[in-house]
Amino acid sequence: MNTPAAAVPGPRDGAALAQLVGDALAHADTEDAAEVRAITDAMVRLLIGAPLHSDGKLTIVSLATEAGLRRNKLTHRHTGLKDLFYALVKARTPVPDVLPDSARARAVKQQQDLARLRAERDDLRGQAQLLARIVHVLEIENSKLKETKAALEQQVAARALVPDLARRRRRP
């Protein structure tokens, strides 16, 4: 395999090194070429931080999950690939925890928006509960008014049956 000097991975470029090893092993005429290819592709995805099938942790369990294999395939059959993975993880340059200013500003803004939305949600929940209580009180008052109205209508109807003698005297 002829590789230009610029494309040769450096000692800290674990993903590229895993890819090269995987290519070399997969091109070798072995019965495990598909497993080797799956393992090295999973190594690359984990080392660059783009897992598809696992939690993204740099462990053998995550590597096996990412490769779609059982863990014992790495610990018993492909021990060289397991050792390579551990060596690449150990030699990996630590990712700085410092975010660029734009990403930090975006993260701060998102946190503020989240806090604002949570406060707004809590306020709306309180208002909804208050409105529910108000509606309940109004329903009770409305039913009492209907009962009072019905009682007054019965009293008016009862008085209509009794003649008003005071009115009769005033007319002549």
Gap between N and C termini, in Å? 132 Å
Overall, the morphology is rod-shaped
Q: Could you state the order of secondary-structure elements as H and E? A: HHHHHHH
Number of helices, where a helix is a run of at least 4 consecutive DSSP H or I residues: 7
- Specify Rg, calculated over alpha carbons: 40 Å
Domain count, please report it.
2
Uncertain spans: 1-12
Q: Based on DSSP secondary structure assignment, what is the total number of beta strands?
A: 0
What descriptive keywords fit this protein?
172 residues; disordered N terminus
Description:
The longest helix is centred in the C-terminal third of the chain and has 61 residues, at 101-161. The protein is mostly helical. Helix 1 (14-27) packs antiparallel against helix 2, helix 1 (14-27) runs antiparallel to helix 5 and helix 3 crosses helix 4 (71-77). It has helices at residues 14-27, 33-48, 60-67, 71-77, 79-91, 101-161, 165-170. The N and C termini lie far apart (132 Å). It has 7 helices and no strands. It has 2 domains: 5-91, no CATH class; 128-172.
Task: Show the helix and strand layout.
Layout: H1 14-27, H2 33-48, H3 60-67, H4 71-77, H5 79-91, H6 101-161, H7 165-170
Helix pairs in contact: 1-2, 1-5, 2-3, 2-5, 3-4, 4-5
